[in-house]
Design goal:
Layout: E1 38-45, E2 50-55, E3 60-64, H1 67-72, E4 80-85, E5 92-98, H2 101-109
Parallel strand pairs: 3-5
Antiparallel strand pairs: 1-2, 1-4, 2-3, 4-5
Length: 120
């Protein structure tokens, strides 16, 4: 009979390093088309947690920065965003996610941005 294997003696792997050696490749959230989400570019800050955006469907909308995002991410003019237009008023929207400059250029290199807003 073989002795039971010690389950606590497994080698420890750090969570920071990737196991397969692919550095720099990470998952980025994309707009959920079923939830009516779109890519947009921040155009002008209006104050009062409001921002003017240009969407991938070539419409200009006033977007609102929600409270939980206002505390975490600072939205500036020229940022790539994911927005969700309102059902009642289509010229207004909520901001869902903000990409950093590095993430936006990564999406641009991988040809995942529409040509209307690909300025990266």
């Amino acid at each position: 009979m073989t002795p039971p294997q010690n389950t606590y003696a497994r080698p420890h792997h750090s969570h920071g390093a990737s196991q397969d050696g692919e550095e720099g490749y990470y998952r980025l959230p994309l707009p959920n088309r079923r939830n009516n989400e779109l890519f947009a570019i921040a155009e002008q800050l209006l104050g009062g947690s409001r921002i003017h955006v240009v969407c991938e469907d070539k419409k200009s909308r006033m977007a609102r920065i929600p409270g939980k995002m206002k505390r975490k991410a600072r939205v500036r003019a020229g940022d790539l965003l994911i927005i969700k237009p309102w059902d009642i008023q289509n010229e207004k929207a909520d901001i869902v996610f903000r990409y950093s400059r590095t993430q936006a250029s990564s999406l641009s290199r991988r040809k995942m941005l529409p040509e209307e807003i690909n300025v990266f």
